[in-house]
Amino acid sequence: MSRANTTRHLDRLEQLTAILKSEDALTTKRIAAELNISERTLFRDIGLLRERGLPIEADKGRGGGIKLHRNWGVGRLSLENQEVIDLLISLAISESMGQTLFMGNIQRVRNKLMASFSPKQKEKIHQLRQRIHIGAQASPETLSSFHHQHEANTVKANPTIEKIHNAFMFHQRLRIVYKDFHDKETQRDIEAHYLYLGFPIWYLLAWDHLRNDVRIFRYDRIIKAEIKPQEFTVRPLEDFSAILTQQDVKTL
């Protein structure tokens, strides 16, 4: 199947999923007509969605309808790596702020979400949780030099952040251009071992091959990033203890 055909097929599956979520039972004839496909193709697509975990019911017989199971809700989540890490970060921030108006039962929310993950996703989440940390809010002095516009960009709109996250998750070395406090730019080869949030500023706790030592890098000061083929093994958190003891750190 060509890339164009694959894209069209994925788009059609998304349309079918949206139809099933937004309507009561519909006949296969009506759904096939809306998607401009044959009923045979429709049943193949339904089979694929079922394999993905969507609980689709089909009433047998002429005029039978197709619908989602009446108890369908969140169900088993299908999350990409980036979505998993974004969800964890959001939960961690909420937890670090304590009891809030809408998230007073956040521990129960976390438990319910965890119950929705597949075993493979749970293992990925466990690994990521050990590598993401929340600390105290940034000081006024630190905030005065914070480039908020850069940090506020979404991952999709900021390819540099996307590369950092991918290298972090898949244990690959990064070559970055970094601007220090004096606006001096240097090129560094680093290993992104841990993420750290001193709200609202994100940092990388990394091994710096230029300095041959551990270093901390602010996200908003990373000008460019390039993923290198070399992989690394995550260093123990104790290697970064000198950095972490400077803040009140909370593990995710």
Sheet/helix structural class: alpha+beta
User: Roughly what is the average pLDDT, rounded to an integer?
Assistant: 78
One letter per element, helices H and strands E, the order comes to: HEHHEEHHHEHHHEEEEEHE
Q: What's the count of strands?
A: 10
Q: Cα-atom Rg, whole angstroms? A: 23 Å
Count of alpha and pi helical runs? 10
Number of domains: 3
Q: Rough shape?
A: elongated
User: How many strands, which pairing sense, and closed or not: the largest β-sheet?
Assistant: 7 strands, mixed
Euclidean distance between termini CA atoms: 42 Å
Task: Please state roughly what percent of the residues sit in beta strands, choosing from under 5%, 5-15%, 15-25%, 25-35%, 35-45% or over 45%.
Answer: 15-25%
User: What's the helical proportion of residues?
Assistant: 40-55%
Poorly predicted regions are 149-156, 248-252
Written description of the protein model:
This protein folds into three domains: 3-68, Arc Repressor Mutant, subunit A; 76-129; 130-251, no CATH class. The chain contains ten helices and ten strands. With 252 residues, the protein is of the alpha+beta class. The longest helix has 20 residues, at 3-22. Helix 2 (28-35) crosses helix 3 and helix 4 (81-96) crosses helix 6 (119-129). The protein is elongated and about 70 Å long. The two termini are 42 Å apart. The strands form two sheets. Strands 4, 5, 6, 7, 8, 9 and 10 form a seven-stranded mixed β-sheet that branches. A three-stranded antiparallel β-sheet has the order 1-3-2. InterPro entries: CBASS_pafABC_assoc_protein (IPR051534), HTH_11 (IPR013196), WH-like_DNA-bd_sf (IPR036388), WH_DNA-bd_sf (IPR036390), WYL_dom (IPR026881). This is WYL domain-containing protein. Residues 160-226 form the WYL domain. Residues 12-63 form the Helix-turn-helix type domain.
